Amino acid sequence: MRVALVSVGDEILAGDTVNTNATWLSQQLNARGATVERVTVVPDRIADIAHVVNEYHAEYDAVIVTGGLGPTHDDLTMEGIGAAFGRAVERHEEALAWLTTHGGYSHDDLATGTAHLPVGARMLPNEVGVAPGCVVDAVYVFPGVPAEMKGMFDLVADEFSGVKRYTDEVIAAEPESALIDRMNEVQEKFGVKVGSYPGENVRIKLESEDEDAVSAAKAWLQERVTEAYR
After folding, report:
1. What are the φ/ψ torsions at residue 161 (nearest 5 degrees)?
2. What is the rounded distance in angstroms from the CA atom of residue 92 to the CA atom of residue 97?
3. Class for domain 166-222, per CATH?
4. If one looks up domain 2-159 in CATH, what number appears?
5. From CA 77, how far away is CA 118, in angstroms rounded?
6. 3-state class of 63 per DSSP?
7. Domain positions in the chain
8. Verdict on whether the full-model pTM lies above 0.70
9. Residue 25: Cβ within 10 Å count
10. How many C-alpha atoms does 61 have within 13 Å on its Cβ side?
11. What is the DSSP secondary structure assignment for residue 16, as one 8-state letter?
């Protein structure tokens, strides 16, 4: 299953907020066997949201959009989703019923627009906050507040799946350039995907659908590199 992540928010683009949602979702999806192939940040503009969602919906099995939910002037994600699918955004009776029955809010408590979703959307209740999310076709819309996003993802996590991939790593106390030949060889010999991430030391990540291949590749590599102490 190929997934694209879209984070909405001027505050992310300005560097005021770190995009931890994309990191967390990528970890959760990869653990379930889904493959995240795009992570995109767009501003709080309806046209930008609609353009990216429309493009990714056509290309990927699922799209997850986070941020920009609610009734304030810069919460434009639902309008963007509606525009992407050519659907109006209007009061969603199921969302309103959930907010008043389970959320404990009265109609007067809710700001205009809180329970508005694209026509035909499947409502996702916000069990941590207020603004509901939704699903339109294979586009999942979650809040940007991390606790709310995580709670909502849990409601639909089983809808994301794929072939489980196994990973392990070797930390090498050598320059990345000096490791190229051995990384190429281990990849060819064991058929694993190899990634290298330099820092104080080099983290060599090994990945495959075959757990035994990962274990064998790690053992082979450990014998041929100078490992760093963790």
Report:
1. -155, 175
2. 9
3. alpha beta
4. 3.40.980.10
5. 10
6. strand
7. 2-159, 166-222
8. yes
9. 24
10. 12
11. S
Task: Find where tokens 């767009």 sit.
Answer: 42
For residue 168, give Cα distances in angstroms to 22, 60, 123, 190, 191: 22, 27, 38, 14, 14
User: Whose structure tokens read 């959009």?
Assistant: 65
Structure tokens at 179: 């490791």
Residue pair 116/134 in contact (Cβ under 8 Å)? The answer is: no
Rounded to a whole number, what is the distance in angstroms from the first to the last CA of the chain? 34
What CA–CA distance (Å, rounded) separates 85 from 134? 13
169-220 pLDDT per residue, tens: 999 999 999 999 999 999 999 999 999 999 999 999 999 999 999 999 999 9
* Closest C-alpha among 17, 84, 13, 11 to residue 46: 84
Is the distance from CB of 205 to CB of 197 less than 8 angstroms? Answer: yes
Tell me the chain's radius of gyration from C-alpha atoms.
22
Report the C-alpha gap between 155 and 125 in whole angstroms: 9
